[in-house]
Amino acid sequence: MGAPFRLYNTRTRDVEGFVPSTPGVVGLYVCGMTVYDDAHIGHARAMVVFDTFVRYLRYRSWQVTFVRNFTDVDDKIIRRAIEAGRDPLELAEHYIENFRRDMTNLGLAPPDAEPRVTQSMDEIIALIAKLVERDHAYEAEGSVWFDVTSDDDYGALSGQQLDQLRSEDPGTGKRHPADFALWKAKKEGEPSWESPWGPGRPGWHVECSAMAWHALGETIDIHGGGLDLVFPHHENEVAQSECAHGQRYANYWMHNGLLCMQSGRKMGKSEGNAVAIHDLLESFPAEALRLYYLQNHYRSPLPFDETALPEALCMLGRLYEAREVAEGMRGEEEPTVVAEALGADAIRVLELSEGFESALHAALDDDFNTAAALGHAFELARAVNRMSNHKKAMRRAGPIAARALEAFALVERTLGLMADTTESFQAEIKAKRLPHLGLTPEEVEELLTKRAEARVNKDWATADAIRDKLETHSIAVMDREHGSDWRVRLNASGAGCD
Questions:
Q1: 3-state SS string over the chain?
Q2: Domain region containing 372
Q3: pLDDT tens-digit profile of 279-297?
Q4: Is residue 476 part of a domain?
Q5: Which of 290, 330, 345, 459 is deepest in the core (most CB within 10 A)?
């Protein structure tokens, strides 16, 4: 049986206790990509939010079926294919492969099902036929339109007023300006499929209703997606599904806020400000992007500028560094005995560590508040660092550090952060951030070799000059017993933040 949690429901505009249709089971459908181009980091926010949500639910013993679709035939895909002189379905396949590459590189688990429009025509046609049969849809010149006036609840999800609406679907034979296309009559040069109304292809909205029905049944537990989909896409999904099946389509609607520029404009292809996922991951670890998304509540707008990822990387570095400090502590005494001996800072680490699991659960069970959950992680990291300043901490605080390490392990299990070893994390930073600092790994190693030679020769001025030069490039040199090591220093102007 899954642990109880609360969730903001867009339809009721309230935070509600989640009640599943089947005890212990969650059916989750999330609108996926229309694959006419590569995904950008605005799209990735929804992908990371729902990947983390599923991760947490499974950690809390829920049996989750996670479905995310591909729209692989659509007006945008057809237009892009015509511009590129390519087959629309081949173009869609290319971008599906790119999307899966990006999700893998982000460290996301694949959904349990990834239905596609082109592989769901039987279900789509069956759903449209039910709507026609029930007088919620009508045929006109080879197209089929949904009759919005036949649905007394149309607009309930988004709060729109019917008399003020007009759909974006052009066409002749529409009875109401807000009627939208379920089936579009074939046009020359476009992909088409046979149907009872003649050859054509689905409208945008009906596909998700049909794929969700096929994958999860007539009523699904949670439907998710970006806030920009509430109207018209999700509103139209509700209308189609509930008019076809005569029952509630989704019990809970979970919408993530949009990534936006500092100007307030959302990020998007049409805005000309999109940053591709694969481009950003060439410069930053995937976990930095994940932390950037999770540091704000999922429903809040998320501002983006050139400092966003460096700052997130710094925050991530603080967690790794605190864990590394804890891993280096030794000792075998009872934790409470050591804490009393070392004083207030050690007592605080023990208190935070022992209360971490319940604090984490409280945050994430309350409308999936990842910002609050991360706040607990950073509070513990700061406490570990303060404790390490005690002169006896490294050789006595091991038993307390072990409790902190158990807490940090929960951050990985629930939020997908701190999943790397410290060595792997530092190696990735070197590989991805050094090019932005004007050095190569080989150049750093060469300078360190010269510095080591100077130290052997007791040429302290040269050794100090080399260290200073590396510091100007945000390279921290650490002298060890058996030589020197180096790391990229995370700072606001270079790799992260101070």
A1: CCCCCEEEECCCCEEEECCCCCCCEEEEEEEEEECCCCCEHHHHHHHHHHHHHHHHHHHCCCEEEEEEEEECCCHHHHHHHHHHCCCHHHHHHHHHHHHHHHHHHCCCCCCCECCEHHHCHHHHHHHHHHHHHCCCEEEECCEEEECHHHCCCCCCCCCCCHHHCCCCCCCCCCCCCCCEEEEEECCCCCCCECCCCCCEEECHHHHHHHHHHHHHCCCEEEEEEEHHHHHHHHHHHHHHHHHHHCCCCEEEEEEECCEEECCCCECCCCCCCCCEHHHHCCCCCHHHHHHHHHCCCCCCCEEECCCHHHHHHHHHHHHHHHHHHHHCCCCCCCHHHHHHHHCHHHHHHHHHHHCHHHHHHHHHHECCCHHHHHHHHHHHHHHHHHHHCCCCHHHHCHHHHHHHHHHHHHHHHHHCCCCCCHHHHHHHHHHHHHHHHCCCHHHHHHHHHHHHHHHHCCCHHHHHHHHHHHHHCCEEEEEECCEEEEEECCCCCCCCCC
A2: 306-419
A3: 999 999 999 999 999 999 9
A4: yes
A5: 290
